[in-house]
Amino acid sequence: MKLNIAVLPGDGIGPEVTAQAVKVLKVVAMEFNHVFTFQNALVGASAIDKTGTPLPKETIDICKNADAVLFGAIGNTKYDDDPDAKIRPEQGLLGIRKELGLHTNIRPVIAYDDLLSKASLKTKQIKDTNIIIYRELTSGIYFGDRYLSDDGNTATDICKYERFEIERVTHAAFKAAQSRKRKLTLVDKANVLETSRLWRRIVKEIAPQYPDVRVNYTYIDNAAMELIIKPRQFDVILTENMFGDILSEEASVIVGSIGLLASASIGDQYAMFEPIHGAYTKAANKGIANPIASILSAAMLLDYFGLDEEAALVREGVDKSLKLHITTPDLNNKYDNISTTKVGDFIEDFIQNPDETNLNFTNIHLGQSTII
Ligand code: IPM
Ligand code: MG
Q1: I need a labelling partner for 124 at 20 to 30 A (CA). Which of 90, 158, 162, 173 fits?
Q2: Where are the transmembrane segments (predicted)?
Q3: Which residues line the pocket of ligand 1, CB cutoff 6 A?
């Protein structure tokens, strides 16, 4: 298969982790006789520094001409600390999601057996958790009108949803549920918000089209608690933009590190693959950023094009790295010198030599003497 992939490394740790995902895609192409070409483009704070805007026109064009986009991370503390900044890196990410019409953001949350002991939660609580969050991505309070009064004392952010925006992500979530445990939970705040009541009404209308799927309705405040105390009760979570942002980051404590959570952002014409974590500016260029979320996002890219065997092999490489503790320090690794690049190298090697035994694999590829 020929794929032209736009790569938007972005800010902070974005370039480091994205480089590992690109490395993995390159070796996949080599091993499976595909032709993947990569074209880099600027976004976020790094784009502001070079061009004055977080989403240059050239970047939009590159993405629109590509088969898929691989996104890194966005943000910079210098903007976080300045509420008066008119131009912000995040406008780059929100802008590209909107430009490409990426309305459905899919965030899997899987508790790996090898990491259970590293999560802050009890093993028996989180074992076998396997959730997929369907987050609406191009509407709601993120994209509603904003207002700040001239005296600077009053502000509003409008949360607006239209029927078609709710319908399309809802159908996608129901279809996903059908191929999983056939349970869908709508998370909203229908006891307070009119937009949430619209979501509930529309989901109730659509539900009969998927009679094999059980539907539950939960308020966001309750869902935030249930997700931690009993995450196994969830299968597909469907929710609006901001609740999905918050819940998915919360869910990362089940997995052990936010550096492990990947996502796919899908529209009718375009698709982008992005880790859920941010730019983590203070960790940039130290080689400590976990590249697995980015690598797993690349696996979701392969899924999207039906390259199932390739995606499975990438995931097997990730599993193996976790099993052998070839991981970055966010996972309290027992080795202290495993860098971002080394994790990428390991998974790259695995894809080339998937049949080697564990021990030899560690010996040969990472030099046992240096790490144990
Ligand atoms: C995410 C991020 C973004 C979001 C930020 C960086 C704008 O937190 O993808 O979860 O809020 O959507
Ligand atoms: Mg977020």
Answers
A1: 173
A2: none
A3: 74-75, 90, 93-94, 245, 276, 278
CA angle 125, 131, 133 (to 5 degrees): 135
Fold of 1-102+267-372: Isopropylmalate Dehydrogenase (3.40.718)
Q: Ligand 1, residue 105: give the atom nearest the CA.
A: 9
Instruction: Determine the Cα–Cα distance for residues 2 and 70; give it in Å rounded to an integer.
Output: 16
Residue 249 alpha carbon, nearest atom of ligand 1: 10
- Nearest ligand by distance to the CA of 135: 1
Domain spans in the chain, listed from the N-terminal domain onward: 1-102+267-372, 108-261
CA of 102 to the centre of ligand 1 (A): 13
State the architecture of 108-261 in CATH terms.
3-Layer(aba) Sandwich (3.40)
Gap from CA of 250 to ligand 2 centroid (Å):
9
As a whole number of angstroms, the distance between CA 291 and CA 286 comes to 13
Q: Take residue 326 and report the two structure tokens written for it.
A: 């070839």
DSSP 120: S
Integer Cα distance of 110 and 91 in angstroms: 30
Fold equal for 1-102+267-372 and 108-261: yes
Question: Which bound ligand lies closest to the C-alpha atom of 14?
Answer: 1
Place of tokens 């509603």: 144
pTM confidence score: 0.95
